[in-house]
Amino acid sequence: MANDRGYKRSWKNLLINKRYQLRFTLFMVGLSTLLMTGLGIWIMIVATETTKVSITSERGKRCSKIPAIQPPYEEQPAPTPTTPPEPTQPTPGAGSGSVAPDDPEEPRKRPKINVTLDEMEMTKPIIVVPDVPGRGDIYTLSDKGRELNKKSFGWLVVDHWKCELEIVSNVKRLEFGHTRILLVLIAAGILLVFGLAIYGIKMTHKVAGPLFKVQLYLAKMRDGRFDKVYDLRKGDQLVEFYGHFKQAHAGVVALETSDIDRLKKTIAAAEVAGAGDHPSVVELRAMLAKKEKAVE
Amino acid sequence: MSDPTAAGPTPYDGTPGRGPGASQRHKRKLSNYLLDKKLQLRYILVVTLLSGVIAGSLGYMIYDQRHKSTQSIDRDLQELVQDAADIKSITGDYETEDRVLVYKMIGAGVGLVVILSLYLVIMTHKVAGPLFKTSIYFDRMAQGRLSVVTPLRRGDMLQDFFEKFKDMHDAVRQRTVEDIDAMEKALAALRESRNQGDYRGDAHTAFAEELEQLEQHLEQRKKQLT
To answer: What is the predicted pLDDT for the residue at B21?
Structure first.
């Protein structure tokens, strides 16, 4: 295009009109930072609360206990239905439905037993004693107990610690999740600030660029030089405004041209009439030369 | 729309100055705030959308965290409390709180967008206003009119740019005034010499006609300076 000199954009020239560009860019960046910070703090408060709730919930989970290894309990023969048992004082801590000994004072018989475990397979089933009053930690021959019997002791220990470690791992995961939210927010904030700053400067440059170009032409016009006006670069804004400027420039050039035409005719007529050497005609010639140079 | 360049009629006095209407200040009007829709709306849309996206995504994160917390409490309650009605009465409050939070955030988001848009319209108007005013002067210059340039309003941006435009306009006007003065003097001197000299014939008539044309031209140029 004849009117386009095709100046390339350069990052060095991005900040042409610092005052205007920085004002708009900083407003955009400042607002986004403010929003990010305010909402980020809110997020972190809620996230901390949520993490605490989740950790508490996690820690409240109950894992199966490691069963106690007990010698088999000698079961007492059931009392005959004909002789009802004497009412006895309930022992504190006695579980309901458990088999209570007839006389708490009487020591129970605990025969020695040898428990041998196959270390490799751990297949020896544990013997679970029936519920004993005051011995809550010992598994009973309830449904649970029977179920336990099906599993080996080793697997029960493994299950217990697996569950415990799972809780610890979940707590760690929740804490890491909390930290990750913070890190993501900080990273997003930094990216946003830099991204917006660059975008803001580039965006305002498309306005500041045409203004800068117009300013250069204005300076030339002020000094009495009416050079050819070239088009804006592709992507520039203020195209309409620049169009107005071009028309103004053309208008001033038209004024100068009309002056030049009139002066030329007057000088020519004066020369024909024999007044070519008149000081006023000489002055008019100087003016004509100046005006012609201005619109070159 | 009022003419921001209006400065009242200024009689041609040979010097650029302020006319009687130069002190007249044009107030900002609500209807005139969007002077350059393309320029202003572009910036407003970018900033508003960006703020909306930030507020929306972070707001969603807040809601998500709150909701997770509520769900966790709900799960725990289901294990601890047998009565479904009790669970409902406790979790119902949390769910209501979550809903209220969403409404609050939507309200805050809409408020933010509206206030921000209005503020940005005003802010961009301070750029579009001077450009609009300068465009009107450019249009006048295109018609060959070099009237008096009045200053920008207080608070307007692009003051530096407008100052440079004013310098150029004043310089062109001053030069035109000087040229007209010089041509008027030359015209008077040539008329005088024509009367005194021994000019005859067609050349004399043609010269007289040219001087007449020059006078009309100068009259026209003087009118353009008002």
So the answer is: 39
